[in-house]
Design brief:
alpha+beta, 4 strands, Alpha-Beta Plaits, 4 helices, about 100 residues, four-stranded antiparallel sheet
Amino acid sequence: MSACVVVHVEVKNPEKFKEYSAKAPATVAAHKGEFIVRGRVAEVFCGEHGHKQAVAIRFSSVEAARAWYRSPEYQALIPNRDAAAEMTFICLEEAAPPSR
């Protein structure tokens, strides 16, 4: 089953975030990930959400998503990422479609 990594983002340092954003996509592509959407949170319909931006990245499986996140190439970006923004990463495994 495919997987989706959803990242909630609150930028702290725009310059460092620009540096991180310039390098992270190559690590995703190297693991055959595909950006589904990147943008600002337009509205929170219910509950509380403290981040202003979000990203969704599709991978072929949870294992592929995990391999990307744990890769030396992505791990090398984490110090810059942490200086640039507060981020929460979650991985969703695609569920089988409901039977009709």
